[in-house]
Amino acid sequence: MRIRAALATAVASAGILLAGWQSGAHIAETGTATTTSLNSSATSGGIAAGGTNSGGGTTATGPSSAGSGSSSGSSTGSTTAATYDGASVQTRFGTVQVQVTIQSGKITEVTALQLTDAERKSAQISSRAAPVLRSEVLQAQSANVQTIGGATVTSDAYLTSLQAALDAANF
Amino acid sequence: MTSLLTPESPVETAPATASRKRPPGVERFRPQARRRLARADLLGAVGWLSGMAAVALWLADGGASGFSSFAGTMTALGIVAGLIGMDLVLLMLLLAARIPVVDNAIGHDRALEIHKSLGKPALYLLLAHGLFLAIGYGAAEGLDPLSESISLWVNVPDMWLAFVSMALFIAVVVTSLVAVRRKFPYEFWYVVHLLTYAAVGTAIPHQFSVGGLFAEGTWQRWYWLALCIGTGVALAWFRVYQPLAASFRHQLTVSRVVRVAPDVFSIEMTGRNLERLAGSGGRFFLWRFLAPGQWWQPHPFSLSAEPVPGGLNRPGKLRITVRNLGEGSASLAHIRPGTKVAIEGPYGLFSTAARSREDVVMIGAGIGITPLRSLLETTPFDPGHAIVLLRGHDESELFLGQEIMAICQARGVTLYHLTGPRSSGDHAWLPRNAVNDGFTLSSYAPAIANADVYVCGPALWASSVIRDVQAAGVPAEQLHNERFDW
Question: What predicted TM-score, i.e. pTM, was given to this entire model?
């Protein structure tokens, strides 16, 4: 290749990479924005009936009875189990939403209500990641666990939804 | 022994193409050469940019967000290596697809050279892809890379296929290394090379499932879909459909086999629609003689005469001249008249399409003389503006020498026969006598620096010629070399 062409190619390469990076950064920002709107959608979704907070994590400030309609018992009862639906988190592979069951101040069960299933393959990934995440969460008793390699998007969405549910439960 | 033939006065009845008159001072070939070089540059740029675009689209889909942690960084590096590696593999397939745009710009042998040079980088990138991802995923899950690899193999759907793909890529590249390739017959290498398609095929499922390459709503999806489908279509069209169409269109049949020298013979064929092959003298085809035990083996041979189109009652004619080189060529001597012939081609830039100057110098040795014979027949030049150098141990090795001499006389070409034992040292392509007498390349072709130089002959000999040609100040765009030993 002649020098001029090589230089032009190098400049074009740099330009393409820069453009890609720029638009990627833009997507990352809208990604955060999505998370925010997720929490507000969680609000409307019934996690925190009293919560009017349009902001981030502190969505559910109401009493624990503000848990989702499927609460199976009075929330204050220390021995009764209460379930809380997490926010439904949109990912590019589909929607993720989990339900957490809390009994005696402990997370006793995490159920995935919705998992990434945009394509058959994503569904397969979800079905691998979900059990692992569940057992990690039960062990750690929080949403603060490692994401699963090869299923980062699903893991992040799963844990985000879980955190919203735990917030709703004032856990 | 060096014999010099002074050009006869140009004969009035020169071939039609040769008499294509031009006004003095008008350069016919410079614009064509400029366009060709621009096309070559453009193709090179597109090749580079395709890899960059793969990375850029990944960034555009939010790929850079992973760089915040160690695990994320390793994963991101692994993904980038995989993206560029896959892009290179697809480029390699495109380079081997015999696409006319590529062939016209850089020639078939240069395309294959680039194809070969990409093999190892592509493999290293794919290996790095696996390694970095095993480290990255492992770090995220608290596993060492090996356990992570095993867990990926066992637990993640489609990942075992990706491991198989990796093994196939390693096999394909290793059998193509020069040192390894020499130890096995061509057919073994060829069959292993076909596994490339299996390697690409087994790599694609995990790109759908584990990787996000084809995920809905991403830019990458469209890019990779277009690239994969485009490559597949190009291969099917140019390597399968076009050869079949050409074989049916021309209906070639062997008419006779003529012995030219003890181990050299011309195979003459008749066929239809040969006017469509006009100007392909000097270019090569892959020939498949449809006889028992022969049909599966394609032979690369150049035309040794410009195709003669047929008339009302007579079929068109085509000729190749071949030497007993390998086992395949030897059995060709026994091809019977009436044998049908399937072709792929024409390919290569050893033709008028590569011209960039008004003057021509042709240098050929052994069986490499025969493509020069057909090129000399048709490529345009004015009388006195072409020089032909033929090299052989003796006169009987200057195959088709009589025909070439007749063309030289008709078109006003200076012809040199360079015979005798080879010289040692720097100018090994010349006969010893010529070197001892003080002859060099510029003794034969004083104005070579402003001429198109066509070189065709055995690889070692040709590289010796090319060194001298370059030393005489001939730039790359004027140097046209067809490798003849593969």
Answer: 0.76
